[in-house]
Input
Amino acid sequence: MSHEPTPTAGVFVGTEHQLPVRIYYEDTDFSGIVYHANYLRYFERGRSDFFRMIGVSHTELAAIDTAFAITRMEIDFKRAARVDDALVVHTVWNRIKGVRLLAKQWITRGEELVCAANVEAVCISLDGRPRKPSAEMTAKVTPWLAPEES
Output
């Protein structure tokens, strides 16, 4: 049994994946506030760890000529995050429609909403062509899909 520390991949609360993120000095701009583009990184980590935890690995996808590309992301910035903040990245996948996968993500600091995003990803081959997700991947993702809010 290994006693080596491993990074957290977060936890599931129902179909919602939650990934804790600590804000470091390197995440901030000259004003001490998280640089806006870093939220994209936190959202990416949330999506990647969601898939990791349900048994869909980016390495295994690449081995079958499959990857994800983000085709649309709408972000609403609500509050500034600062160095030492403990945030949580929330990820919920709602639907698989052809090559598209639709998700909602949001980042909180305690009960406070920091930012929220609607995300559209597509499955592609490694040469960039759209492709339907494999039956195996779809079978792993489907039980974790949350109904879309109306």
User: Anything to note?
Assistant: The two ends are 47 Å apart (CA to CA). Strands lie at 11-13, 16-22, 67-77, 86-97, 100-109, 112-124. The first helix runs from residue 38 to 53.
